[in-house]
Amino acid sequence: MKKENIKWFIILHIIIVIISASSIIAKAAGKYPFLSFKWILLYGCVVAILGFYAIAWQQVIKHLPLIVAYANKAVTTIWGLVWGLMITHEQITLQKVIGAAIVIVGVYFVVSGDEDVSGKSEEKIEEVKNNA
Amino acid sequence: MLKYALVMLTGTFIASCSQIILKKAAEKEYPSKIAEYMNPMVIGAYFFFFGASLCSVLGYKVVPLSIGPILEATGYIWVAILGKIFLSEKISKKKALGLVIIIVGIIVAAMGA
């Protein structure tokens, strides 16, 4: 892997961690009454992170193949388990771990099974990138 | 928890709809860069997206952090189905297998919730 690709791969995973962490804020918002000041503040943070994600994602897919980006995005399921364990002290059952792993495999099949993003046509990849 | 999980799944469906609308909007020709973003379809899509994030926040009131992202993986399924209906995108055998695998994963994880 080229040095430049490694850099964008790391950036991709930083973005994935950030978008995944937005679920912690969403969870925190749930503690407050709907439309209360704190609820609005936390929901605003979630929307701001989504906005950041939309911009950052566009940059990442300019430098990494779309299939790599989408397949790696599936690790949010693993981060969900980590946050659940660390933040809300949820019970991480074997079924949850296996389920998350199966979902990741499924996502890989979905993105690699999509002809438009599988590398069959560079022109189509550009088209998908532009439309994403 | 089922009620809140359904709210979250509805949000994922709405987000998938917004992606399809954005894709439809991207296929059109616009007279200017501003018009590419400031048109009813794109504004509508982001309005949907906003609604989807609201569903996610409401869902997380009860849905565990460890299950949320797994439920959100249903987005891949909705995008594939909606893409086939509205964009005439093909679902290859490998992709269809992947969608089935995702469903199996969600069921397995839900059993452990």
Automatic annotation (TrEMBL), chain A:
The chain crosses the membrane at residues 6-28, 40-61, 67-86, 93-111. InterPro entries: EmrE-like. Gene3D superfamilies: 1.10.3730.20. The keyword NADP does not apply. Signal peptide: none annotated. Keywords: Membrane, Transmembrane, Transmembrane helix. The keyword Membrane applies. This is EamA-like transporter family protein. It comes from Pseudobutyrivibrio xylanivorans DSM 14809. The lineage of its organism: Bacteria, Bacillati, Bacillota, Clostridia, Lachnospirales.
From TrEMBL, chain B:
The keyword Transferase does not apply. The chain crosses the membrane at residues 6-22, 43-60, 66-87, 96-112. GO terms for cellular component: membrane. Residues 13-109 form the EamA domain. InterPro entries: EamA_dom (IPR000620), EmrE-like (IPR037185). Belongs to the EamA transporter family. This is Triose-phosphate Transporter family protein.
